[in-house]
Amino acid sequence: MAAEFSGVDGDLPDTRVAIVVSRYNESITEKLLDGARQTLLDAGIEAPQIVVARVPGAWELPLVCASFLRQHNCGAAIALGAVIRGETTHDEHINRAVSLALMNLGLETNKPVAFGLLTCNTVEQAIHRSGGNVGNKGIESAEAVLEVLRLQRKLPSG
Question: Tell me, what CATH number does 26's domain have?
């Protein structure tokens, strides 16, 4: 029988988790932050182990996540923001660059990086994804990080 691993349950490592949150569209991103932080606390991550950094916008998320993840005592990062489509294609360029940078950062550091960047067409869509009728992407992002942290503890090394 093949080995099978899951991070749904199990112990969490004793590590810091960084939440990097965009100030742009702050009425949305604060709700994402509240959801992520509470999810980490509910899972047993101690408050001093949760560090929050605020950046101007989505573009700055990867750089600050990288600063944390390159520290030995930070085991994961959650990037939170909201980019809402405007009259140009600017949002597409931001979303693509940030998503690729965050994915590459996780692969480079071998640490989980959650993509909690809302990429919405309207403010209404963002509201629904930050605690409205579609849930809270901050909570989902924190849950994903927790699951991967647990899973990494179970994977064979070497």
Answer: 3.40.50.960
Count the neighbouring beta carbons within 10 Å of the beta carbon of residue 142.
30
Q: Verify whether residue 128 is a known catalytic residue.
A: no
Give the model confidence (pLDDT) of 24-71 as tens digits. Answer: 999 999 999 999 999 999 999 999 999 999 999 999 999 999 999 999
Record the tokens describing residue 68, joined without a space: 């944390």
Tell me whether residue 83 is annotated as binding.
Answer: yes
Rounded to whole angstroms, the Cα distance separating 60 from 79 reads 10
Element housing 76 (H / E): strand 74-84
Q: Is 58 annotated as a binding residue?
A: yes
State the total domains in the chain.
1
Task: Please tell me which residue in 72, 90, 93, 128 is annotated as part of the active site.
Answer: 90
Residue 14 DSSP SS3:
coil
In order of 27, 56, 129, the CA distances from 62 in angstroms are 21, 12, 21
Q: Confirm whether 79 is domain-assigned.
A: yes
Residue 106: domain span: 16-49+58-149
What pTM does this model have? Answer: 0.94
How far is Cα 110 from Cα 155, in angstroms, rounded to an integer? 13
